[in-house]
Design a protein that fits this description.
This protein has 244 residues and is mainly alpha-helical. It has a domain at 23-168: Helix Hairpins. 77% of the residues lie in helices and 5% in strands. It has helices at residues 6-33, 36-88, 93-177, 180-191, 217-225, and strands at 200-204, 207-208, 232-233, 240-242. The chain has a four-stranded mixed beta sheet, covered by helices on one side. Helix 1 (6-33) packs antiparallel against helix 3 and helix 2 (36-88) runs antiparallel to helix 3 (93-177).
Length: 244
Amino acid sequence: MSTATPEQQRALLELERVDARLRRIAERIAELKNDPETARALQLRAGAIATAKELETAEQALRQRLAAAEDKVARVQASIDKDRRRLEQGGSAKDLMGLQHEIDTRLRQLAEAEEAELELMQELDDAVAHRARITPRLKEADADARRRVAARDEEGRALTAERAELAGARAAAAQAVGAPALVTRYERIRTGRGTERPAAAQLRGTSCGSCGTALSPTDAAEFRAAAADAVLSCPECGVILVRP
């Protein structure tokens, strides 16, 4: 059984306090990186951006189609006006009949073109109105994601800064123990299972301050009989148990 003065053993509790905070910081940073709410907000934002682009593209396409329809109406109307002027100038009966037939044909084309133009105008109005209705929701999705990311990053920066400060405090706490062999044992327990875990705790009555397990009557008797400088461990979780 290794030994260390009661003072050296109690100094481990400060080292454990620093390590416990470092563990909580690491866990919180991992939680921030994998926060489902932030991930969902970012997903909604990505969808909102895609929807906004689709609406804009569809609206631009309708404007282009409407411009083409307006141009067609103007061209057909110009042809009708031209033929009417030629009709007013007179000519042979055959030529006049041909012009009138052409005008009638153009008038039917004009009616169709104007109807198509009106339909496109209505489609464009509907698209503009739909975009106006949905844009606030898209903007809110973008703003919500930005707020969440900003809050996550701000907390992450604060935790990273605290972790850097605690690195110095941890080195000082380890040195303050004044028993390299005890610190080595502590570190072996802390990292021995592949992930960091508590390595020291205070004995609270007859219970482990880490896992909460109560000592059996036999173990409790051995703890009471142990020398003050004996380094004892919890039979259940293996942490170094520091007696008051």
